[in-house]
């Protein structure tokens, strides 16, 4: 009697301990197996083509291209692969962006471990997995025909938001260019766009607003 085929899952996270925890959690299930691990988007894209996973569990913040950019790239090249975001970032900030990028689910890392497995099983059934709060907010927007006016954060592109977060956590534009693997000039283009949206005159003012916003996002 042949063994049932297990669902192959690829993990993408730049923290080895997170990948180890997820591997142990998932491999303990009789119908799942972690077929590979990647620490950044470049590695992940190579492994997806080789290993052909059914599901990719991906973090948002990584060196180089962000998890949101990876989701877009994967869906463009491998449309049948489903992606679930597992992130430290609050879902109110990123879940909707992840959904628009093509993710089938979003879980915060502080959530109970059962939710990781619940999300994988839901996605395997062809369902999406987002919290009740996110689903309610999206339904409200649909009813209101777009909802309220976007906030400053809501008006940022995915890459601008990434730069804003890094500024808020104390990184210089030069460091941001290295972390995101983009040119120093491109970082300044993003900063210029954000200054315009916030009606600010200088990078120091932008830094001040970014730091204040970053501090407001920290757990109380």
Radius of gyration: 18 Å
Helical amount among residues, as a percent range? 55-70%
* CATH architecture field of the largest domain: 3-Layer(aba) Sandwich
Task: Tell me the number of helical segments per DSSP (H or I, 4 or more residues long).
Answer: 11
Please report the total strand number as a whole number.
5
Specify the biggest β-sheet.
5 strands, parallel
Mean of residue pLDDT?
86
What is the CATH class of the largest domain?
Answer: Alpha Beta
Going across the major beta sheet, what is the strand order?
2-1-3-4-5
Shape: globular
Low-confidence stretches: none
What can be said about this structure in brief?
This protein is of the alpha/beta class.
Structural account:
This protein is α/β, with parallel strands linked by helices. Strands 2-1-3-4-5 form a 5-stranded parallel beta sheet, with helices on both faces. The chain has 2 domains: 7-141, Response regulator (Rossmann fold); 152-217, Winged helix-like DNA-binding domain superfamily/Winged helix DNA-binding domain (Arc Repressor Mutant, subunit A, Orthogonal Bundle), CATH 1.10.10. The chain has 11 helices and 5 strands. The model has no long low-confidence stretch (mean pLDDT 86).
Question: Which helices and strands occur, and which strands form pairs?
Answer:
Layout: E1 7-12, H1 16-27, E2 32-38, H2 41-51, E3 55-58, H3 67-77, E4 82-87, H4 91-101, E5 105-108, H5 113-124, H6 132-144, H7 152-155, H8 158-168, H9 173-180, H10 184-198, H11 203-217
Parallel strand pairs: 1-2, 1-3, 3-4, 4-5
